[in-house]
Amino acid sequence: MRKVFIIGGLGHIGLTLAAVLSKHYKVVLFDINDRAIDEFKINHKATFYEPGLNELLLKNAKNIEIAHKFEEIKDCNYVIATVGTYTDAYLNPVLKHVFYLFKQLSTILTNQTVILRSTMYPGMTKKLEKLFKNSNVKLAFCPERVQSGNMVKELQTLPQIISANSDKALQSASDLFAPLKLKQKLLKDTTAGELAKLMTNAYRYVEFSIANQFFEMALDANCNFYEIFDVITDGYPRLENLPRPGFSGGSCIRKDTMQLAAWYNGPTFSLGHNASVINEGVPLFVFRKMRKKYKNLDKKVIGILGMAFKPGCDDTRDSLSYRLKHILENEVKEVLCTDPYVKSIQFISIDELLEKSDIIILATPHEQYKNIETDKPVVDIWNFLGKGIGI
C-alpha cells in the first residue's frame, strides 16, 4: 500500500484529508502541536470538532500513524503540505515559513510527489518548484475548498482542482485522488490553480458583504430588512442565492480575499477591500445600533451566544464574535460568553448567561439556541429566532 506523509497532519485540513485518504493509503501524520499529538496517540481523535471525523479516524485506524521523526518522509510516495501563505497587516505576503519548509524538503526528497494543499500566493508554487530542479520530485497545487462542519462529506463529494506545471506532476497528483472517485478539474498551470482557490473564497466574501451592506442600509432607513429580503428573493431566481446578513468570519475567506488584493497591486482590487471594511464593520454597526436603542449600556451586562465563526463547529479563527466582544468590553459593565462547541474556562453555560445578562446578542446561530426562552432583549441580526433583530 502506498504511503502519504502529511505535514500539519493534525490540523483541520490535514487530519480530515488523512481520514478520507486512509481507506486507500497508509497515512503518516507529522505535526508540531504537542497537545494534538497526545490526544491522537491516546484516543485516536482530533482536538477540534468536525462531524464524522473521529468515527472515520477510528474506522481506518490501522492505516494512520504519527511520525516519530521528520525523516520518515523519505519512505513515503506522496507528501502533502498544509502550510499556506497569508498577508500581514500591511498586505505584504508572508512567505518565509513556506520557503524554509521547502528548502528542508529539497534536501530530503528524491522522487516523491509533493502536494500543496493550503492557500498559496499566486506564483508561489512555481518558485518552490525551482528548489527541486535537480531531483525527480514532482510538485502540484491541489487546494482544499471545504467548509468547517462539512469537511468530511465535502472531501468525498466536491470536485478536486489539480494543477501542475508538468504532465508527470499532473498525472501523479491525479492518481493520488483517483480512489476517491471525485470529479477532477485539471489545470496545467499552478498559478491558475492558486488563483482558483483565492477567487473561490473572495467571491463568497464579497457576496456576504453585499448582504451586510443591504442590511445596514435598511436599518438606517428604519425599514424591516427581512421584509425586503423576502420580497426580493422569493420566486425571483436571480436573487435566490443572496446570503442572509451576519458575522462573516472564518479562517479563509477574508484572508484569501486580502491575499488576492495583495497580489493584484493592493488597492486595485477595491471590491475585496470594500468587502473587508463592510464585513469587519458589522460588529461595530451592531453596537452603535444597540447604543441608540438601549440606554445606559455602560451599566449593562451583555451576553454573547456563540463564539465560533459559524454554526455547528468549534472553529474560532477570525470569528467576529471576538471582535464584538472586544468592542463591548470597552463600553459595557461586563461581557459574558458561551458556546456549545468552543471550550474555554472563561465561558459559562447557556442557562447562566441567560440569567445574568441584561441584553443578549446571538452572534453565532447554533441550532442549540433555536428554542431558548428568555424575557431579556435579544439582538439577533440573523433573525434566527424569528422574533426580529432587536436593534
Secondary structure blueprint with pairings:
Elements: E1 3-7, H1 12-21, E2 26-30, H2 34-43, H3 53-59, E3 64-66, E4 78-81, E5 86-87, E6 93-94, H4 96-108, E7 113-116, H5 124-129, E8 138-141, H6 151-155, E9 160-164, H7 167-177, E10 184-187, H8 190-220, H9 225-233, H10 253-263, H11 270-293, E11 301-305, H12 320-329, E12 334-338, H13 350-356, E13 359-362, E14 378-379
Parallel strand pairs: 1-2, 1-4, 2-3, 4-7, 7-8, 9-10, 11-12, 11-13, 13-14
Antiparallel strand pairs: 5-6, 8-9
Helix pairs in contact: 1-3, 8-10, 8-11, 10-11, 11-12
Descriptive overview:
The protein is an alpha/beta fold. It folds into two domains: about 190 residues, Rossmann fold (3-Layer(aba) Sandwich), CATH 3.40.50.720; about 180 residues, Rossmann fold, CATH 3.40.50. It contains 13 helices and 14 strands. Helix 1 crosses helix 3. The chain is globular, with a radius of gyration of 23 Å.
